[in-house]
């Protein structure tokens, strides 16, 4: 655990310290987000925050390569985790910088995402098998494993990119997802007497540290945005950890049934259920209107929370709550035998969350009108006396 804690600390610290310098560079470079009708921010805000996050990732991998046990993980057999993250992450950052500065077309970004997935595959990060309900694993030949891997990488990147619409939203959601994957992988291996050192756990730890270090600069009111440079990078690492965890555990050594085998396949879709659902609804909505699936609008889920009357910070915290609840529920089901207790607690917390969200989310205009209604006597409230100026 000490190696992972050190890796998280280095990634967070470097990302945090680099962000102010990246902010000044973004202003000089001209990579700023000018407010649009569908945006929440009202002043030009620098982008390129993903550069600081990439610096945190590189620093964490360098430190990990200096630790004897972690060095084995970074170059374990046919899977070069460190090289894959550096090469694919570097490529996706270059594409993101170009988009944050000059707004490249969607096809170019898609090509960069597919190329980054191709680097993963060349370095051994690929879906080789899928667990079956009978306890066996279905081996996937390259004809199926390669396109499935590309799909997972591209879908995860774009899901994170879609949710990057409020200050601190993407960094917080992905950070919670990474923490869930890290806790799942570490605790499951430790509980079943296996080695806790793995490329998937290391990737999740680095990703969590990157998001943790960048979030103080990005939380509302944001001083800098991560831009596509950051959203595509953290989506890439999130997909890498998921792919590495798929098929990692042998059903014969697990003491809590077969459900833990499916957690890597369920955790990211679960914690990313909000962005994935938002992405699917946006694609359906835009194509139904005869528009491009990539055309922007102001009907994302976080926009709807704002329309309900929530502030920007509260809308972000609501998203954190649901992602954290889903992640903790799945990890709890994988680690504990008392499934009904885990499900019961999750449902109770979810119901309480819905009630609280609706009560606090009444539109401000309705709350002001309710406060301004006259009393039972039918008289208007007395006007407040004006103080002398």
3D architecture notes:
This protein has 389 residues and is an all-alpha fold. The chain is built from 15 helices and 4 strands. It has helices spanning 2-29, 49-65, 68-74, 81-102, 106-122, 142-163, 169-191, 199-218, 227-245, 259-271, 273-288, 301-307, 312-335, 339-360, 364-372, and strands at residues 32-33, 45-46, 129-131, 137-139. The chain has a two-stranded antiparallel ribbon. A two-stranded antiparallel ribbon has the order 3-4. Strand 3 (129-131) and strand 4 (137-139) form a beta hairpin. Helix 10 runs antiparallel to helix 13. The longest helix is centred in the first third of the chain and has 28 residues, at 2-29. It is globular, with a radius of gyration of 23 Å. The termini are far apart. Mean pLDDT is 79; it is low at 364-389.
Arithmetic mean of pLDDT: 79
Q: Biggest β-sheet, characterized? A: 2 strands, antiparallel
State the end-to-end CA separation. 64 Å
Helicity level: 55-70%
Listing every helix as H and every strand as E from the N terminus to the C terminus, the arrangement reads HEEHHHHEEHHHHHHHHHH
Number of helical segments?
A: 15
What is the tally of beta strands? Answer: 4
As a whole number of angstroms, the C-alpha radius of gyration is 23 Å
Task: Report the principal-axis shape.
Answer: globular
Strand order of the largest sheet: 1-2
The stretches of 5 or more residues where confidence is low (pLDDT under 50) are 364-389
Derived from helix and strand composition plus strand pairing, the structural class reads mainly alpha
